[in-house]
Write a structure and sequence with these properties.
single chain; alpha/beta; Peroxisomal Thiolase, Chain A, domain 1; 5-stranded mixed beta sheet; 4-stranded mixed beta sheet; 9 helices
Length: 330
């Protein structure tokens, strides 16, 4: 049976970060400085989950805020998608923990993994379900506790923090909503950012722990080269697909890898830096949470008005990357 595709927009946002703040001065013991971190990455501090906080705790708090912002109840949610690289457990899905914690028992729930691009991938999945009338209200959450998989004895431990952001996607009855979506991946870059130990390829063992392979490992130059190559390209693709030009974009909500990387990307695309929203100074890179937290802060600050053209962009391990254009409908 043929169905008319529905427009899909964002009707609510929310975010949560843990209380503990870890400033740049913490990293002097591993040979870094506040001056270098801020000048190079744009980071001043990051939030760290408490011993009693799992990824699902952060995700649940962000999710409830998004549902309230959408003027819905948990019973209205049909599906919960949690984008995370740091699940509570290998099984069951963190989304099931979230479902139970917010008591959204009418919803189906599953996780998906695209690391820093995860929230974007999650929104692309939600859009398909809603456009085809399979579901009406989908809660997409990006959440990570990278402090659990960071080797704090290494100099590159400065990059990440913990946090969660969420959005409720639903159908819209006017001409607003997502205008275009592109997701891409290239498995040839799978070792540019990886966690070598703890999976089925290299199960947890005394050797894995001794070699500290349970923590993330990153080739910073490879990340920078890939991001500044593929992200401008995918942004141009989604602009062309929607018949828009860089000057038509009102606001940019990007993943938060580093300020220098973002400046390079958007200079290449031709979008003024003033339109690019950043918060890595407060949170560092929260991986799956980055785009969602930035979206919520921009929304709650009243920077978005109905009809604004919003550009999203992110790159994650894999490599995975994505860009989307949304005509704001809230």
């Amino acid at each position: 049976m043929n169905k008319t595709l529905r427009n899909v927009g964002i009707i609510g946002t929310g975010s949560y970060v843990p209380e503990e703040i870890r400033p740049n001065s913490y990293f002097e013991k591993v040979g870094s400085t506040d001056e270098w971190i801020y000048k190079t990455l744009g980071i001043k501090e990051r939030h760290i989950a408490g011993a009693d906080e799992a990824t699902s705790d952060l995700a649940a708090k962000a999710g409830l805020k998004a549902i309230a912002d959408a003027n819905l109840t948990v019973d209205d949610i049909d599906l919960i998608i949690v984008a995370t690289a740091t699940p509570d457990r290998p099984a069951p899905a963190t989304a099931c923990f979230v479902q139970d914690k917010i008591k959204a028992y009418n919803a189906a729930a599953f996780d998906m993994l695209a690391v820093c691009a995860g929230f974007m991938y999650g929104m692309s999945i939600a859009t398909q379900y809603i456009a085809t009338s399979t579901y009406n209200n989908v809660l997409v959450i990006g959440a990570d506790t990278f402090s659990r998989i960071t080797d704090w004895e290494r100099r590159d431990s400065v990059f990440f923090g913990d946090g969660a952001g969420a959005a409720v996607l639903s159908h819209t009855d006017d001409d607003t909503g997502f205008l275009g979506f592109k997701i891409r991946s290239d498995g040839r870059g799978k070792y540019g950012f990886t966690i070598p130990g703890g999976g089925s390829e290299n199960p947890m063992s005394h050797e894995v722990i001794e070699k500290r392979l349970q923590y993330w490992h990153m080739d910073g130059q490879a990340v920078y080269k890939s991001a500044t190559t593929v992200v401008p390209k995918v942004i141009r693709e989604v602009l062309e697909e929607t018949g828009l030009k860089p000057e038509d974009v009102d606001c940019v909500i990007p993943h938060q890898p580093s300020k220098n990387m973002l400046k390079t990307i958007f200079k290449d695309v031709g979008i003024p830096w003033e339109k690019v929203q950043t918060n890595m100074d407060k949170y560092a890179n929260t991986s799956g949470g980055t785009v969602a937290i930035m979206l919520d802060e921009t929304n709650q600050a009243g920077k978005l008005k109905k009809g604004d053209i919003v550009l999203f962009a992110a790159i994650g391990s894999g490599w995975t990357w994505s860009s989307a254009i949304l005509k704001w409908s809230k």
